[in-house]
Amino acid sequence: VLPLFVHHQQADAAIAAMPGCSRQSIERTVATAREAFELGIPAVALFPALTAAEKSPTAIESMNPDGLLPRCVQALKRALPELVVITDVALDPYSTDGHDGLVEAGQIVNDPTLPILAAMAVTQARAGADVVAPSDMMDGRVRAIREALDAAGFTEVGILSYCVKYASAFYGPFRDALDSAPRFGDKKTYQMDPANVREALREAALDEAEGADALMVKPGLPYLDVIRAVREATNLPIAAYHVSGEFAMLKAAAERGWIDYDRCLLESLLACKRAGADFIFTYGALDAARLLKTSRNG
Ligand code: PBG
Question: In terms of DSSP H, where are the helices of 18-154?
Fold first, then answer.
């Protein structure tokens, strides 16, 4: 799965985006997705990079059917009907607080966030998303989203739950790309403690019971033991997210000539598969697909 950051214009020079994490216009996003699809990458994961004016405390822009993300989904499905389009469900790209949930009196409030997430998911489904992927880590959101999708007639739209998501330091380049870093505090009240593995199994059981179609473990490489533990606890498909900071380490080390990028990228993805991931979100998807194609042909 190739993550893509859609923006109103092409990347502005002020943002020193890491390779693979740059913002692209809708037109460019469609062109990149086409390239990916032709290389055999079956799915993209879309994230909107919004202007400050589009952000608000209640993330109301996330329900705008004519917003940047729904327009991009429509353009992708029109151009590439067979491409699986996965959309992210969380408040952070739309929120002036940069948190994944609603903020009240300096606290991230779980239950009042659920209807916003559900409305966001329905907006994305209406635009044509095949799979919605809640990455917010509020409790009970998979059920709330499932019920809202079904009530709106989107029984066929799947839910990929970012089920086991750690409060990790590896999300930096992603937050730079979306300008979505938390404006106060951190995400530790809703994302998981990196030292905790048993909670992963509880989260997996809850999301499965709430109706998730697939589960994600995130980040990837530093959490291979967690991927393995979740693999053994569920029969649902498992995604690993090889996140922006993990990819940044490969890129930066390769730029300095310290590692062989191609081989380290493929080895990283192989390790996620070996641990039990069925599919992988990675900024190296295009590179990996090209490498695998060459090795098959050669
Ligand atoms: C936010 C979200 C994040 C990522 C995916 N969805 C960042 C965060 O939780 O702060 C990170 C992905 C990456 O680093 O590549 N809902």
Answer: 26-38, 68-79, 110-127, 141-151
